Amino acid sequence: MNPISDRQPIQCTHKWETHSPEQTISLGRIIGKHLNQSLTLLLYGDLASGKTTFTQGLAQGIDVQASYPVTSPTYTLINEYPGRLPFYHVDLYRLTAPIDLDEIGLEEIFYGKGIVAVEWADRLDPSDRPALRLELRFSVIDDNRCQIRTIEYGLDSSDLLHDIDICAGTQ
What we know:
- The chain has helices at 21-34, 51-61, 106-110, 164-168; strands spanning 14-18, 39-44, 78-81, 87-91, 115-119, 133-140, 146-153.
- With 171 residues, it is α/β, with parallel strands linked by helices.
- The chain has a 7-stranded mixed beta sheet with strand order 1-7-6-2-5-4-3.
């Protein structure tokens, strides 16, 4: 358990609107390229809101080879991929009860070396969220548009997401 996991965000909220799965992948890829240290990304949103699509782009941005297809680990819970940094894709959708992080290996992953993307992060107990994290909230606007809002917790004040608005071509 992490007693400071719910401290206030260090950075402001960023917000983007993507107009296609390709733009959602692009945003993930750009954020992945900006990641140079271990970090946990907690993804929140309804079914089909873009979480897995974003994660596929994130994997591209941290140089996971295309020969490793990034798919949602709904039944395995955790998939690991080699990249510039180790990449862990976690999907907690099938969990209906609170989990023991150590029991499924998440505590070691959260505090180890690598990038961790957790879909259905609302299944985590709030006290289990790492203090150093990026939260992404996905909302479907309509059939073609998705809004992605981020909040940075405990990250360097240089602002990890500073130039992404211009690069992604989204607002």
